[in-house]
Amino acid sequence: MTILTTKRLILRTFTKLDIDTLYEDVFKCSDVVKYTFGNENFSYEQTKNFINNNCNFKDKIGLSIIEKKDTNEIIGLGGVLQCEYLDEIDYEIGFILAKRFWKKGFAKEIGQAQIDFIKDKLKAKKALALVDTNNTASIKTIKSLGFNYLKSVKTTDSRKQRDVYILNFQ
């Protein structure tokens, strides 16, 4: 199911066929994993388990597939995630791109579409973005989307310590 589209990208739900591509391009790439999951590269079995347990196969909210419109090539995963880092229900934008798709404007493009989705479809008053303090490229992208640093939090998932950035819509 298509969740949202941009000029060049589609955000869609997962299928079991996506696991192999994401394993090769994301989960076993040290440069991607160190800023996103904060641990060692995933084995194929760990990748499969992570995707089956954490990714979106049927809804509009959750970690989903990002693919290029013109080629249907999977470039990463991302999506709008429900969260409670500020002690209330909020929505977080997110994107994890395969290294070969870095520095092409895809993160900003999908990030803006996620912001619009949170504001227009979910009618939320703000959006959050969580990022590793050392991930300067992602920080630059989320700042260019209008987010401002709020605080650091300790997450309960594998990401551990993250900086929270906030974008208020009002």
Automatic annotation (TrEMBL):
Domain of life: Bacteria
Matches recorded under InterPro entries: Acyl_CoA_acyltransferase, GNAT_dom, N-acetyltransferase
Extent of the signal sequence: none
Limits of the N-acetyltransferase domain: 9-170
GO molecular function annotations of the record: acyltransferase activity, transferring groups other than amino-acyl groups
Classification via SUPFAM superfamilies: Acyl-CoA N-acyltransferases (Nat)
Pfam families membership: Acetyltransf_3
Name of the protein: Acetyltransferase
Organism: Malaciobacter molluscorum LMG 25693
